[in-house]
Amino acid sequence: MSLDFIDKLIKATVILAALIFLGGVWFDPGWFLGLLIGALWGSANLYFIKKLIVSWLSPEQEKNWANNAYVTLIKFPLLYFLGYAILSSGRFTEVSLLAGFSLVPIVIVLNGTRLGKYLTGFACGRR
Predict the structure, then answer these.
(1) Which pLDDT belongs to residue 89?
(2) Average pLDDT over all residues of the chain
(3) Closest by alpha carbon to 48, among 75, 20, 26?
(4) Whose CB among 47, 59, 83, 97 lies 3.0–4.6 Å from 38's, allowing a Cys bridge?
(5) 102-112 core/surface letters (b: 16 or more CB in 10 A; e: else)
(6) 47 falls in which pLDDT band (50, 70, 90)?
(7) How far from the centroid of its chain's Cα atoms is residue 9's Cα?
(8) Helix or strand or coil: residue 92?
(9) Phi, psi (5° rounding) for residue 38?
(10) Residue 65 has pLDDT above 80, yes or no
(11) pLDDT at 116
């Protein structure tokens, strides 16, 4: 089983967040930058979740414990500390970060529709 669809979802989320950022930066740059940063953080979180699943649970993968520890140490302490630092900095509103983080599940739901499959295919260079 291939997990390439997760890479497609990440690309589509980043492209959608960049388009929303470019469209809304004229209205409120700080809010839409928070949306973009939230979407990037959510995409990084999904990427590391995929890496953890593949490295820990995949029977095809050779068990490389150093790589497993490396991915685990990046995902949990560093990524979540970065999220805490972004949230506690006060530069972005919580709503904008939450809206950006929520783009990942929105793209996942949209992927089940024709529009989402078109966006995901467009993000990956296929139509």
Answers:
(1) 92
(2) 84
(3) 75
(4) 97
(5) ebbeebbebbe
(6) very high
(7) 8
(8) coil
(9) -60, -40
(10) no
(11) 63
Alpha-carbon span 15 to 124, nearest angstrom: 10
| Structure-model confidence comparison of residues 37 and 121, the more confident one | 37
CB atoms within 10 A of CB 63: 10
Q: Where are the alpha helices (DSSP H) in the chain?
A: 4-24, 29-57, 65-73, 80-88, 94-101, 103-110, 114-123
CA 114 to chain centre: 21
Burial of 33 (0-12, 13-18, 19+ CB in 10 A): middle
Give the mean pLDDT of 13-27: 92
Q: Who's near 54: CB < 8 A, 6+ residues apart?
A: 3, 61
Question: Which residues contact residue 77 at a Cβ distance below 8 angstroms, ignoring those fewer than 6 apart?
Answer: none
- The token pair at 85 is 């630092």
